[in-house]
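User: I'm curious what two different proteins look like when written out as structure tokens. Can you demonstrate?

Assistant: Sure. I'll show them one after the other, since each token string lines up with its own sequence. Here's the first protein:
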Amino acid sequence: MPLTEAQLLRILPSAGPRAGVFVPALNRAMQRYRIDSPVRQAAFLAQIGHESGQLRYVREIWGPTAAQKGYEGRKDLGNTQPGDGKRFMGRGLIQITGRENYRKAGAALGLPLLDQPELLEQAEWAATSAAWWWANHGLNELADAGRFEQITRVINGGLNGQADRLALWGRAKEVLA
């Protein structure tokens, strides 16, 4: 069942008018990547809600911080060329980061992301890249198993923001029930 703008605003009340922009893109992305049950949708919306500041951010806030400076030269991210760290900063609703992840996402989505990384800032591609990443990392199956903490670890590498993620998940489960 497609997500409505009213439902999204109940889950992400701070999204405001951005909810109306993202609902069609989220519905297409969730359908394409089989985020197609209330359990999967609740977990997905909670995680992207946290990662994007309730749809406020589709691009990483750049300082650069010490951590962001560390993106330069990170072979695990595929950042092998000078400037790759900033050029391939986190973008999209789940913050795709690094040249190699942009390459993989671009190939999967049919987008020239290595040449135009800012495409992931558009609602359609911000949502689609997040759903692609979600499905590509087995998160539908973790959602089906109720393993929300493990989903956070896969996305975040730890449990940063877990209280907020859990609050959003609780709301999403209630709204989508």
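Here's a second, unrelated protein for contrast:
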Amino acid sequence: MTNHDALGRWSPQALAVLRIVTALIFMLHGTQKLFGFPAPPESGIPPLMSLFGVGAVLELVGGLLILFGFLTRPVAFVLAGEMAVAYWMFHAPRSMYPALNGGDAAILYCFVFLLFVFTGPGAWSVDGARKTGPRHSWER
């Protein structure tokens, strides 16, 4: 067995760890905007029916769904879109350089969520528990 084979068999678990950690951190953005936890945003808690309020709901509810790996692909698609919109509407106009415009996280979230659109949730997910058999070679 080569090192690639030995590491490759842990891909579903590594993907699940990425999914869980990403979701937990992403959810904090939603709780910050909705509840002021762990600290309120500098601009204050946004109205629920504002662009930031809708984003906060997506971050909290979408993050929770991603955390449990439930409806992972469609939810990840929506969240990737949210992060793309956030980057181009709020970060990119400040500067073309992500390190200067504060958009690093939005870019990373966008592409991590896109990864989940194509890979699914990995191990330890509601989606995985709901299906009857493996659909991909790494899920065997």
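A detail about the second structure: The chain has a mean pLDDT of 93.
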